[in-house]
Structure formats: structure tokens, C-alpha cells
Design brief:
The chain has helices at 4-18, 40-49, 108-117, 143-163, and strands spanning 35-36, 53-56, 66-71, 74-81, 90-98, 121-125, 128-136, 141-142. By secondary structure, the chain is of the alpha+beta class. The protein is globular and about 45 Å long. InterPro entries: Put_sensory_transdc_reg_YbjN.
């Protein structure tokens, strides 16, 4: 009986793998399937599909690839990091609010409180409040996850802006 148990387990495992395409756990296909390529072009395409205006910034060999994304009232800087051979590990969205005319009243307590409650990161830089969020591309991602990340970021940007003095 013990000899049958390993054979049965092998048989079940191989049957499960052969049926993986029919709702099982088939290996994802990058690009055409659910998992998307970790490239700036693929990210830009998904953001356009979500209805945002996306412009690829001119390539500069000394800088990481970047995009400008127009989303409602916001113009976001979107840049990639950990890029090798056209594939990138992360994408970061960022926007800022200029308070350079009122720099002495920048509220670090507001920033610290924000960072304790939200996944986005707020900070003060050169007289501006800045709000960033990073999404991991390494290993692949889905279009739905990238769109949800951007929607969440924009929601946080609206809440952060409403909290500014």
C-alpha cells in the first residue's frame, strides 16, 4: 500500500499540471496573458488603457526611463528604477505642491502623521510637499494591479492635498 501512495501523488500532480490551463495554476505568459512585461512601454500602455494621458519623456543615458502622466488635475512624474536590458524592477509615481513662498510654514508634523497612516510616502523637499508611491514590477504584474495602484495613489494625492495648510 505504501508503494501506491507515492504513485498516486505523482499521478494527481501530473494530472493537475496538465489541466493547469483550464483554471489551474499554469505558468503565466508575459505580455499576452495576465502577467505584463516590466518595461516602461508596457506600463505606459496599461496607464493609457486606464484613461490617463501618458507621455514618454526623452531617453537620457544618464537617467532612468520616465513618463509624464496627466490624471485629472494632477500631472505626475513617473519614473522607473532597477532597469536592466529594458526591464525594470519598480515604477514610482510622484507629485508635489509648491510652498516655496511659505516655506517657513511647512508642516513636518502633517508629513509624519501622514506617513504613519498611508502607504504613500510624503516628505518635504526644496520648499514643496511631495507624495510618492512605488509599485513593484519585478517578477511581473497584472494590468488590474497596476491600475488599482494608480487609482489608490491618486485617491491618496487628493486626500493629502486636502490636508495641506
Amino acid at each position: 500500500m505504501n508503494k501506491l501512495l507515492p504513485f498516486a501523488a505523482t499521478l494527481l500532480l501530473s494530472a493537475g499540471l496538465s489541466n493547469a490551463g483550464a483554471g489551474g495554476a499554469a505558468a503565466p505568459v508575459t505580455g499576452g496573458g495576465q502577467v505584463q512585461a516590466a518595461t516602461p512601454a508596457a506600463v505606459a500602455a496599461v496607464l493609457r488603457e486606464a484613461g490617463y494621458q501618458v507621455t514618454a519623456n526623452p531617453a537620457n543615458p544618464d537617467e532612468a526611463p520616465s513618463l509624464t502622466v496627466k490624471a485629472g488635475d494632477y500631472e505626475l512624474d513617473v519614473w522607473f528604477s532597477g532597469c536592466k536590458a529594458g526591464s525594470c524592477d519598480r515604477v514610482t509615481a510622484s507629485t508635489s505642491w509648491d510652498y516655496s513662498d511659505d516655506e517657513e510654514n511647512l508642516d513636518l508634523d502633517l508629513v509624519n502623521e501622514w506617513n504613519g497612516d498611508y502607504f504613500t510616502q510624503a516628505y518635504v523637499y526644496e520648499g514643496s510637499y511631495v507624495l510618492d508611491s512605488t509599485f513593484t514590477l519585478k517578477g511581473g504584474y497584472t494590468r488590474a494591479a497596476l491600475k488599482a495602484w494608480m487609482a489608490d495613489y491618486l485617491s491618496d494625492a487628493g486626500e493629502f492635498e486636502a490636508a495641506l495648510p
